[in-house]
Amino acid sequence: MAEKTIEEVRKFILMVAAKQGWLPTRDESFLEDLAEGLRVNWNRYGYFLCPCRDSEGSREADADVLCPCVYARQDIETYGYCFCSLYWSSAFASSGGVPGGIPERRGRGPTPS
User: Fold this and answer.
1) Residue-by-residue pLDDT tens, the chain, 113 positions
2) Who's near 99: CB < 8 A, 6+ residues apart?
3) Domain ranges of the chain
4) Which of 5, 63, 79, 97 is the most buried (most CB within 10 A)?
5) Are 68 and 20 contacting, i.e. CB atoms less than 8 angstroms apart?
6) Does domain 6-93 have CATH number 3.90.460.10?
């Protein structure tokens, strides 16, 4: 497994955002922290584990929290941003709002579609 560079992780974040119609957080310092977390997780586990989640020990057990996690779409639709605030809706980004805490969806029954 080849280690990821921070540049490769930044490209991944932008690719996901573009594909999903989202925007990355506008807080550049926080974006760098999240990118570094994804880089560390890739280099540690071999997959992009969400930077705000703990690993359950395997890719299979962590499948719901591979970035972007399966909860992101519902969180973004409901709150305007995902659990770790890496990805935002364009409406939230243009609102000038500041992300806050949102309820944890993991472990609350069936995975959202």
Assistant:
1) 799 999 999 999 999 999 999 999 999 999 999 999 999 999 999 999 999 999 999 999 999 999 999 999 999 999 999 999 999 999 999 999 999 999 999 876 444 44
2) 25, 79, 80, 81, 85, 88, 92
3) 6-93
4) 79
5) yes
6) yes
